[in-house]
Design brief:
The complex is a heterotrimer. Chain B is an all-alpha fold. Helix content of chain B is 78%, strand content 0%. Chain B folds into two domains: 80 residues, Up-down Bundle (Four Helix Bundle (Hemerythrin (Met), subunit A)), CATH 1.20.120.1200; 46 residues. The radius of gyration of chain B is 20 Å and the shape is globular. Chain C is built from 25 helices and two strands. Classes of the chains: A mainly alpha, B mainly alpha, C mainly alpha. Chains in contact: A-B, A-C, B-C.
Chain lengths: 100, 167, 653
Amino acid sequence: MITVNHYMLLSAILFTIGTFGVLTRKNAIVLFMCIEVMLNSVNLTFIALSRHVGNMDGQIFVFFVMTVAAAEAAVGLALMIAFYRNKDSIDVDDFNMLKW
Amino acid sequence: MEAILFYLTATVAIISALFVIKCRNPVNSALNLITTFLCLAVFYIMLEAPFMAAIQIMVYAGAIMVLIVFVIMLLNLGLAVKSRYSHGLAGGGFLAALTLLVTVYFIKFGEATGTGGEITSEVISSYGHTELIGRAMFVDFLLPFEIASILLLVAIIGAVILSKREV
Amino acid sequence: MYSNLWLIPFFPLIGSIFNGLFGKKIKNEAVIGSIATGMVFLSFLVAAQNFFKLLGDTEKVHELVMASWITVGKFQLNWEFLLDPLSAVMILVVTGVGTLIHLYSIGYMHGEEGYYRFFCYMNLFAFAMLMLVLGGNALVMFIGWEGVGLCSYLLIGYYYEKKSASTAANKAFIVNRIGDFGFLCGLLTLFWALAEKGVWTLNFVKIAESGHLLESGGLLITVVTLCFFLGATGKSAQIPLFTWLPDAMEGPTPVSALIHAATMVTAGVYMIGRMNGLFAMAPATMMTIAIVGGLTAFFAATIGLAQNDIKRVLAYSTVSQLGYMFLAMGVGAFSAGIFHLMTHAFFKACLFLGSGSVIHGLHHAYHHAHLHDDPQDMRNMGGLRKKMPITFITFLVSTIAISGIPFFSGFFSKDEILWWSFGSTRGHWLLWVLGAAAAGMTAFYMFRLVFMTFFGEQKTDARAKDHIPESPFTITIPLMVLGFFALIGGYIGVPKILGGANRFDAFLAPVFEHAQHANEIHAHGTHATEYTLMAVSVAIATVGIFTAWVMYIRNPELPGKFVARFEGAHRVIFNKWYIDELYENVFVIPCKRIGTFLWRGFDVKVVDGVVNGCAWVVKGVGAGLRYTQSGYLYNYAMAMVVGVVVIVGFFIF
């Protein structure tokens, strides 16, 4: 029998993988994809729990997460293009102009 | 049967997610990410949420991934030249482990309250998942829905402005 | 009804805003001047209409609420106007004299730099003054009160490049501020005292109605009225705060005429009249007011005896006449005080404008001859009556009026004050002596001024003396109008004893009668006494005039001998009793010392120390912490994840 906890555990593993990727990869696009993995793991949690408690709200929330992810993809990728134009790189280690 | 399907799909999802962060070539990462998304769509179907599975495939695997691959191609990135990983590897690993620990602990000892809501399997099969989603979205969540559309509009404008050469 | 009352202050405000915004662009003096004058004239017309309507009305007190201002609990404060006989007289005086002086200024200020600025300020002043007199509650009045102080400051400092002018402006403003402090203290104490009795109001009508709730003659009401009186001494230049008014003569002459003779300085008198009910209940305050008024009348007159600057003589004369008005208020002769306020507005405005005309002519002549003599020094004048006939005649009429010669306006008002100060239940014969002595000196120094300026030999520099013109019509017309009123203005208040009906008194009676009856204030005495006093005061004035004639016409060398004989006394008077020096040493220098100490000792070391210390600490911490800002994305991301883990962990464990 597959319980909600199985889904939660899977979601936790995917989230951790995503976190690790965000913290360690240097390529901005890969980093971006890692964020998508994290978002999806959360979506999975939402839907699993939505079924578990018998309420539609969680799934609606997933819908909005997807909306935000789409917006984020559009803006984030545009930012990367703009950055690539200036720096000829999308390595996050080159994104260091904020420091003192 | 259900358990076999779950474990199989879960294994594929985890392995492909690991490949996402491991591959040298961003295009490979993107393809592995698509695999992960498809696995999640399978889970959604198992969770009796076919509409979510459909938009998971359409929006994520379709639209967003196309956009990402498009950008990768546009920038002509090739392989990561120096090293794939930044020097925060140890810290990242530690924190990822810590995150896992916290969440697992949460799953083990946490308790979902408010269970036994009205949306049961019978309700879903009698009305259909899409109709339930639609009703919730256009009755209870109409305002957030409209706000989301504004957000998308803003994102479109923002993307155009950002990628223009001269404003 | 009286619903167009708000137009009266509104017109000058519009004029002021217009000239302030567009005057610089317009540049055309005729346009600027006629707009400013026209606006005041329009409000004069509205004021006159309301005045005559009130005259025929049986109901004498009208309130017009424009809008709600503050509503807190039981306390309701409105933008409201109050029209009663007192404010009706005041608006007529302010707008009437104001119109004439605006007209005069068109000619007088011709060619001055900042012409538009002058008219902008003048209109603003008219607005503030009308708010002061029309205000239906003490806070609206206070707006006007502060507004006229501000305009006074701006206009005294009109020639702001001149050091003495800007200093005089500061002095006027600061001294007034002491008075304003008193006014506010009185206002708040009164508000508190009435609120204690359950009446939450600042409205004048309500204050008058509920004044009886306070203990008559009690400590509270005495404190309140004394605070208000302090405010009045500041604005109306009474002892101890009179020093600013003579210095205020640094402003252009029309300003001196409008603000520092006819209107603003009478605000204190008006305010006491407005709150007569409260003042009448505090005999101690009334006595203080009478004594201060009498002493001011006397001392200012003595100073006026020896001044040589034509405007300064008039300034001290103004202080002295204001002293009379306070004397009247102090002995309970409220309507006599307001009557003197009105007649004084006519003849003193005329005198100032006349002196302005003289200065204007001399200035012109000196300019023509390329000389730099002082056009305000009377020792350079003399014999001007032939050069400036209109100025001379109007000036002479006003001088006779101020001296208290029978059948001129000043006689009626001054005599009524003197009679009350002797015969009132709140009066005393010593007050009468002070007033009568001041009247004699007034007659002397005013005729001294006339003789030195218009009679005798012409002492102007020979190169300039043939170029002194009579002033243009814009200057002489206001002079003639004001001179005419200085002549006949008194006939509206001819006392009963001289066969008149004292209509002025009857008109104002609704405002003052109640307080006078309730507190048993009335003048008593036989007709014989009244006639005697009148005769004595006329005799004293005549003696003053005769002395002036002897000293400045018949024996012009006599003043020199006199000064040589009483050198010490002359020096004290000439130097204004050294009051300025006294204040300088007692108040100003210690204040500066304390200020310097607070600056060097407290501000620089403690306050700046704390502030700079904060900055140094922040700077040091920042210098240390900036190494945490690596600029690398993964550092920030890691910090964020640490934060999330800690927060989630905190909730779980």
